[in-house]
Amino acid sequence: xxxxxxxxxxxxxxxxxxxxxxxxxxxxxxxxxxxxxxxxxxxxxxxxxxxxxxxxxxxxxxxxxxxxxxxxxxxxxxxxxxxxxxxxxxxxxxxxxxxxxxxxxxxxxxxxxxxxxxxxxxxxxxxxxxxxxxxxxxxxxxxxxxxxxxxxxxxxxxxxxxxxxxxxxxxxxxxxxxxxxxxxxxxxxxxxxxxxxxxxxxxxxxxxxxxxxxxxxxxxxxxxxxxxxxxxxxxxxxxxxxxxxxxxxxxxxxxxxxxxxxxxxxxxxxxxxxxxxxxxxxxxxxxxxxxxxxxxxxxxxxxxxxxxxxxxxxxxxxxxxxxxxxxxxxxxxxxxxxxxxxxxxxxxxxxxxxxxxxxxxxxxxxxxxxxxxxxxxxxxxxxxxxxxxxxxxxxxxxxxxxxxxxxxxxxxxxxxxxxxxxxxxxxxxxxxxxxxxxxxxxxxxxxxxxxxxxxxxxxxxxxxxxxxxxxxxxxxxxxxxxxxxxxxxxxxxxxxxxxxxxxxxxxxxxxxxxxxxxxxxx
Length: 522
Prior knowledge:
Layout: E1 17-18, H1 67-75, H2 78-95, E2 97-100, E3 109-110, E4 114-121, H3 123-147, H4 152-155, H5 161-165, E5 187-188, E6 191-194, E7 200-204, H6 213-226, H7 228-234, H8 242-252, E8 263-266, H9 275-285, E9 288-290, E10 295-298, E11 301-306, E12 309-312, E13 315-318, H10 341-346, E14 351-353, H11 364-367, H12 370-378, E15 385-386, E16 390-391, H13 395-403, E17 408-412, E18 421-423, H14 429-441, E19 446-450, E20 456-460, E21 466-474, E22 477-479, E23 483-485, E24 490-494, E25 508-515
Parallel strand pairs: 4-25, 7-15, 8-9, 8-13, 13-14
Antiparallel strand pairs: 1-2, 2-3, 5-22, 6-7, 10-11, 11-12, 16-19, 17-18, 17-19, 20-21, 21-24, 22-23, 24-25
Helix pairs in contact: 2-6, 3-12, 8-9
């Protein structure tokens, strides 16, 4: 999940906290007044990776959709960048954005580094991404509806029954519940990477409470102010409309098609790592942000306590994990959820977004079956392919994994953010031995994948140099009556040289993602 950072108790969110940005959000070079040429691409090294900005070859040329970026950035003087830096500093201080890492001895609150060289995606590439994401969320919604109703895909042997029933987030208590629009996944944030050939492939799906979209909107506002002429020249598609798109989605899935539903955002509270995002989205949508103690269920109907009395709630955009959302059904020690909420859902009196039980579809073992899921429900081949995946519960796959740990990435089925993962090529013999023991003890819980050489992107580093750093992309898809893809996404960048881990808790940062309009301006 986003930022990688360990989840707060009761939350499926990760990575956003409460606090204030400061000058650390820019690389060290930007605070040095003696650099006269802060951005220089002429000594940039392509190496063996697919590069987002430069074509490969002995004399690499700038890709057409990056020409304006190259030209503008090489024109900026030291004074230009000092002014832009000050503008960015002010913007982030005003908006107060950080993320939280609970395992860090240096303190929980951290600055999320921001790199000002934008990632640019031309219209024809985005059209493929958009079609692939719509295909994927459509198939996964059909899959979730099926496994919580007739389970035909299991009966016909496409996905093994034990894979579903052993998934950590499968909720048999929810079988038979009908949902508005048959939608389980209302908000999705799938992580994409580009392989050595430049093809976009899906690394994983985030279907419970995907976070990070607040950075998408905030990063864009900063870049529009800092580089207004470049932004206009590039004819970039906007992202500011996301809160409106999200609110429209929530309203569409209200129970019984209610025309003026009351929507709220349910948060674990101010100490949650993603609380900044919770408040940001609630404010931008113009809806109330509530905690579990603010809601009560009476006769199967959810009400919000207000100073004017009880107000019925129709749609809950929940940022609390299933386990903690209703102590009468799941964890009885939870103080974050709302007693009786599952019963209200069962009676069709409230809609949760995302729906309970969606986590089974972003289990990393189920991920391996998504191509088959797409083919089964849609009779189509995947537009966006998966990374090749070995499943440790299969004897042959497990044998291969154990014999090749030094060359694979091994992941726990339900961990996120760089935790529960072995990076084989950089691991020690002791780490590989420990993972081998875990795989043998619980093979259902582990998958293996080859190390995919993520694409790289020019990134400003120390001493005014511009070096290639690995990036991924998290676009956001909304699904109500029909799917919609926000034209942009969170580009995360591994700021540590040579690292493939883009999560913020592991040394990552972010870039603004510019999706260009077609030549016709459509």
